[in-house]
Write a structure and sequence with these properties.
This protein is α/β, with parallel strands linked by helices. The chain has two domains: about 150 residues, Rossmann fold (3-Layer(aba) Sandwich), CATH 3.40.50.1010; about 30 residues. Helices cover about 60% and strands about 15% of the residues. It has nine helices and six strands, in the order βββαααβααβααβαα. It has a four-stranded parallel sheet. A two-stranded antiparallel ribbon has the order 1-2. Strand 1 and strand 2 form a beta hairpin. Helix 1 crosses helix 4 and helix 4 packs antiparallel against helix 5. The chain is elongated and about 80 Å long.
Length: about 190
Amino acid sequence: MRIATVDGVRTLLVTHRPSGLAVVVDASIVVKWLAREQDSEAATRVMVDDRPLTAPDLLPVEVANVFWKKVRRGDMPTTELRPAITNLLAVDIELHHSTALLNRATHLAVETGHPVYDCLYLALATDMGAALATADRRLRQTAHDLGVELWGERPSSARQYAVTRLVVMIAARDASSSHQRALSERR
């Protein structure tokens, strides 16, 4: 997948993405791909990563709303709106039903004080064990605090600790079960 500029309009060229650990992309990243924004080039690096992209099905609506705001403020010419929406719908992002994530996202919102719509991305990333790609500093910090892997960074020490703790707990459980079976067999 790559972006080309044709007659001054950014055009997204979509290619097939291989399977692997997914990256959850939020609206702030996708807007940077499709509209002229600061750090657009840095945001496009996630598109050339070999990991599949995924997001809650709220993503296209949220991105279209940002385009609407940009047009109203005069930051985006109306002539760029149709190509931007066309490109948005052409991006190879697997969309997940927000309703399936809503319970977890609402609890995360209450826990973190972050809006439910942003917590949909966090819920999807945690449910899938995926990295989160966002340009939203507050969401990045919330993800970091929760131990969610951030795309482009190494997994947080909190996440590494949680994974290590889980592995140790499973190993201890398995060892205890083996010990109990051995005792039962001796009787």
